[in-house]
Amino acid sequence: MIKRNKRNQNKQPAAKGLSDAAIAELNGRPTELATAAPDPDSETAWMAEGNCRLHPPATFFPSDGVGVDKARKICRDCPVMSRCLDYALEERIDHGVWGGCSERERRRILKRRRDESLVATAETA
Ligand code: SF4
């Protein structure tokens, strides 16, 4: 089973020039995608099917909007895009483009879900 390094999950990437090793240290995804043989029993086995496995890891940790758009284009026809987004939302991954969404977009999705949940709770009370 692939384990992410939660200890470093909240580190802020140093924008441009972040090395592959530093990015891998953030959450492990790029190195795993590039080197790990897929373990079909792993809860992250879907990562081996992601389009990002064919691109440099830094592509998914952009420092500006142009970089985010570039990553999104790669995600757009990814066969595991929805699983990737769900995973990033469930794991509260703060950095990088996952499931075609930037950090900001994921925060908005989570906020919207929280708001909807509060409304639903209020309506049933
Ligand atoms: S949606 Fe994007 S980040 Fe996620 S696996 Fe696919 S290409 Fe990679």
Task: Write a concise keyword list for the protein shown above.
125 residues; mainly alpha; binds iron/sulfur cluster; dinitrosyl-iron complex binding; Whib; Transcriptional regulator WhiB; metal-binding
Structural class: mainly alpha
> Tally the helices: what do you get?
5
Distance between the termini: 41 Å
| Total domain modules | 1
What ligands are attached or bound here? Answer: iron/sulfur cluster
The biggest beta sheet reads: none
Q: Kindly state the number of beta strands.
A: 0
Q: How much of the sequence is in beta strands?
A: under 5%
Shape summary: globular
Task: Give the topology.
Elements: H1 20-27, H2 29-35, H3 65-76, H4 81-90, H5 103-124
Helix pairs in contact: 1-2
